[in-house]
Amino acid sequence: MDKCLICDSEYSPFVDFGFMPIANAFATKEQIKNEYTFPMKVGFCGNCNMVQLVEQPEREKMFHENYAFFSSTSNYMEEHFKLFANSVSELQDLNEDSFVVEVGCNDGILLKNFIINHISCLGVEPSKNVAQVAMEKGIEVITQFFDRPLAERILQSHQKADAILSANVMCHIPYMHSIFDGVKTLLKEDGIFMFEDPYLGEIIEKTSFDQIYDEHVFLFSALSVNYLANMHDLELVNVEPQITHGGSMRYTIAHKGIKKVSQNVVKLIDQEKKLGLDKKQSYLGFTDNINKIKNDLINLLTKLKNDGKKVVAYGATSKSTTVTNYFGITPDLVGCIYDTTPIKQNKLSPGAHIPVLPYDQFRESEPDYVLLFAWNHATEIMKKESDYMANNRHWITYIPNVKVI
Ligand code: SAM
Ligand code: TMP
Q1: Does the N-terminal peptide bond of residue 400 adopt cis geometry, omega within 30 degrees of 0?
Q2: Which residues line ligand 2 (CB under 6 A)?
Q3: Residue 168 Cα, ligand 1 centroid: separation in angstroms?
Q4: What's the CA-to-centroid distance between 380 and ligand 2, angstroms?
Q5: Which domains does the chain have, with CATH numbers?
């Protein structure tokens, strides 16, 4: 039995992916010789309802000066974070005396919106290469991992925060108690802690198993976040679904008893209980659902290969590392992946070793079929490529099931 990272209860895994590489470890032929892997299993704790990775690689193996994920690669995400900043400003009535902290600010996609409006802010970002891009946008960044000791140091050097924000970062951090203690310390009495992450309810409903990779230690629900907040004398006061990253949830947390708890929280917890997210049995069919997608996709790719069709992939996402490695997708089935991120280009994908090529070469490749690894950006990408794909070319998607479009 394994011990829950949140409440220390014993639990056992419900899905086992075998050994997986680091999802963002795009590497050259030389570097790939010593590729690191870890056993990737996911379990559900029946006491606090947290769904979690059983083992995680050390954080420095994932977040460092060559981190491959840059937030500002999607126009839609730029717009999303602008709206996020505006809604925080409105909710907390932010002005020039206010102070906003973001945990995991990456290249500054969110905080740059506060800078434009002359609201003081601070980013905390341990991956130095992406932090550098944020600094070039005029954002103050501490290039360290956020935790309780760092929150105390920020308090000494700055002030309490009106808002502590985070997107697609909280679910990456196994030492959640140190984070919540840090938030408790750093947050003003009427401050808010808002974070968004891929939502467990959507992952189970859509079988979006590719949201599971080394960085995603937790798959949160209102049930589990509520439990965690209570452990730290904090309170979950609102939840707002987001369409980003294939279905996310934004959680708003405040000091206990300070803000009114929205009906959204009550309703979502009720809905999660109806869906059975608080029961182990509900997770037992997940592996079968993944294996159905696996068989359908591998059969399709094999048939296309035998028919002499050219298949390439679009978007060297972190998620695709789970798909390629668990399904056994090799370069003979999918020739290459096109991606706009310079640091990923002309490297091999983790584990499966599919070449990643610059997006600029996509159209020259004249594929028959394009496997959309960046399915969470489908609307934006399909619109951008609609003219080119209209020419008797097809998309292949696989969440929630395999489809040729
Ligand atoms: N917030 C951005 C977004 O939504 O696009 C970036 C998300 S990216 C997937 C996760 C980021 O969290 C990385 O830039 C990583 O370096 C950072 N990170 C990981 N652990 C952290 C920690 N303990 N404190 C602050 N940032 C952390
Ligand atoms: P994400 O799913 O983790 O946000 O990663 C998206 C990846 O897809 C990232 O490597 C950038 C890439 N991408 C493109 O190549 N073209 C695009 O139009 C978009 C939106 C993303």
Answers
A1: yes
A2: 69, 73-74, 315-318, 339-341, 344, 359, 374, 376-377, 380-381, 384
A3: 7
A4: 10
A5: 71-278 (3.40.50.150), 282-404 (3.40.50.720)
CA distance 225 to 190: 20
| Residues 331/63/125/184 CA torsion (nearest 10 deg) | 120
CA of 345 to the centre of ligand 2 (A): 12
In this structure, the residue with its CA closest to atom 3 of ligand 2 is 317
**How many A from CA of 402 to the centre of ligand 1?**
31
CA 376 to chain centre: 11
277-301 burial, b for 16+ CB within 10 Å, e for fewer?
bbeeeebeebbebbeebbeebeebb
Mutate to test the pocket of ligand 2, among 172, 318, 377, 385 (most ligand atoms within 8 A of CB): 377
Q: What beta strand segments (E) does 146-201 contain?
A: 161-167, 187-198
Q: Which residues contact 350 (CB under 8 A, 6 or more apart)?
A: 21, 22, 23, 24, 25, 26, 27, 35, 321, 325
With a 6 A CB cut-off, is 127 part of the ligand 1 pocket?
yes
Contacts of 379 (CB under 8 A, 6+ apart): 76
**pTM of the entire structure?**
0.94
- Which has the closest alpha carbon to 235: 185, 184, 188? 184
pLDDT one digit per residue (tens) for the chain, 405 residues: 899 999 999 998 999 999 999 999 999 998 888 899 999 999 999 999 999 999 999 898 888 898 888 999 889 999 999 999 999 999 999 999 999 999 999 999 999 999 999 999 999 999 999 999 999 999 999 999 999 999 999 999 999 999 999 999 999 999 999 999 999 999 999 999 999 999 999 999 999 999 999 999 999 999 999 999 999 999 999 999 999 998 999 999 999 999 999 999 999 999 999 999 999 999 999 999 999 999 999 999 999 999 999 999 999 999 999 999 999 999 999 999 999 999 999 999 999 999 999 999 999 999 999 999 999 999 999 999 999 999 889 999 999 999 999
In a 3-state reduction of DSSP, which class is residue 245?
helix
Extract the runs of DSSP E, i.e. beta strands, from 178-279: 187-198, 218-219, 234-242, 248-255
**Rounded to 5 degrees, what are φ and ψ at 262?**
-70, 150
